[in-house]
Amino acid sequence: MDITEANEYDIDGLSYELDEIHEKAKDYDTLPLLSADDRLRHNANSRLQNPLAEFSDASLEKMALAFCQDYAISHKDDIRGFRLGAILAKDPTQYEKLRDRATKEEMDTLEREVTHRWSQPRLLYLVIILCSTCAAVQGMDESVVNGAQLFYAAQFGINNGDDRSSWLVGLVNSAPYLCCAFIGCWLTVPFNHTFGRRGTVFITCLISTLACFWQGFVNSWWHMFIARFALGLGIGPKSATVPVYAAECTPPAIRGALVMQWQMWTAFGIMIGYAADLAFYHVPDQHGIVGLNWRLMMASAGIPAVIVCCFVFMCPESPRWYMSKGRYAAAYQAMCRLRYNKIQAARDIFYMSQLLQAEAQVSFGRNKLLELVRVPRNRRAMIASEITMFMQQFCGINVIAYYSSSIFVESGFSEISALGASMAFGVLNFVFALPAVYTIDTFGRRNLLLTTFPLMAIFLLFTGFSFSIPLDTHRSVRIGCVAAGIYLFGMVYSPGEGPVPFTYSAEAYPLYVREYGMALATATTWFFNFVLSITWPSLLTAFKPQGAFGWYAAWNIVGFFLVLFFVAETKGRTLEELDVVFSVPTYKHAAYGGRQLMYWIRRYALLQKGAKPPKLFH
């Protein structure tokens, strides 16, 4: 079958249960569930997972020698490193097979890499610090506006409580995310192609610095809108580039943990943003300067970005970026700086080179954006990814992140107390993100979402209806209930819908369309971030806190059912297994979700201990 014909085939009409599949097929290459087109892609994805699996050690050494010859790597120590590294690239845990050929120091390093995965060179930790600081820049960019809007809205005459003022406050606050969704995120590919990973990080942090300082000098709401819109040019490409840069520089043993670090240190940056709001609250105006306190709040978000700009070029460029430009020798030298010995560096460079060759062979004659929609396996991954990204915003978290100070003032706090309460929320958001490094791989992505969505709905309803408590007679009770509801919501969000979307999107797509899938996922979350930010003030005015919080509580219930029916579990799956998981017809997975819900009702509501959980596959 020609591949252009195969693209037209779908598998939704097939009625195989995965239990039947495993009885009929002994390996994934013969799965009857997959169409001819899907099987071809499955085999390509398997090759992308480990392009060296089929080669013997002797063949790998010959390939390593050819690699050195092709790319003018001629020093005998480097050639030796590639011969041994190529063997190790097939399976880094099988370092014992090199014991007769490697030195004791090299063997100790290889063993320690497996047994003590966080034992890495200092320069690699500098890369980790760089990526964490970039995440903090992101978080601070998002949160400083929380306290500043208490002041600039009044100064610019957009706090009158009418519809126009509500929409303008929302428009100003949401400006960066509007830019991210329609411009910023889509600059990621050309920026990375032209300037590399380090260059993109430097340019985006420079933009963030200038835009943050610009916000401190504005004199009208539309001037603030323009400055904040420009901030989105820094936020968008940085949010897509930094996780990629970290993944390309770090060894596989800690790569997954570093994907999680982005969300965790973004939460840390949000906390620091709240702290800056509190620190500058009492700064008095100086001669000729009105609103110095909020101007310092907005400008302070540029400080972490300045720090990044100062030391980003102390880190090496991504070796994989060098290789994409054909600069293999430069890639090897960069990797040598990120590993303890040349065997490790040669291993990772050789493996990357084979992976790039495999990627180049995965070409199906179609536009990759179309592949996301036309190929059933990719389409189901895209639907699941888009659900998690959409719900990361519409669960209501950024209502708290951007407007908590205003919410706390509405509940009865003084302004300074509201800023302190917002900072406490930031601390909880950061602290409760830490367990996610463990829980996301222990409980699974889908299970975390199914557990936390109902709890988030309950706590948002509790927060909203706490505003019904009379302020004049029960002020302290109302304040306590509102704060408790918001804090409990943050504690549940942080290990669930906080870290899951980016992790899920990064692993659900096959490698050959992952860059496009992640660009779409990032644009989605920023677009709905914009929608949430611009509509909240008007929503609050129209429906009062009870209705506004109830709106997002209802979306958490919707999110629960969307995950139940359409989001497959990806925990602990290889690329081969994910091909099978996402090849299950959508209606089959939805039916499984329905059976799972009925099991929970029988087991935990009706206390039927004999109820058995349904199975989707073995």
From TrEMBL:
Subcellular location, record wording:
Membrane
Q: Which GO terms describe its cellular component?
A: membrane
* One Pfam assignment: Sugar_tr
According to Swiss-Prot or TrEMBL, what is its membrane topology? Multi-pass membrane protein
Q: Does the keyword Transmembrane helix apply?
A: yes
Primary location group? membrane
- Provide the transmembrane region boundaries: 167-189, 201-218, 258-276, 296-315, 383-404, 416-436, 448-471, 477-495, 516-536, 548-568
Could you tell me what this protein is called? H(+)-myo-inositol cotransporter
Tell me the organism.
Answer: Rhizodiscina lignyota
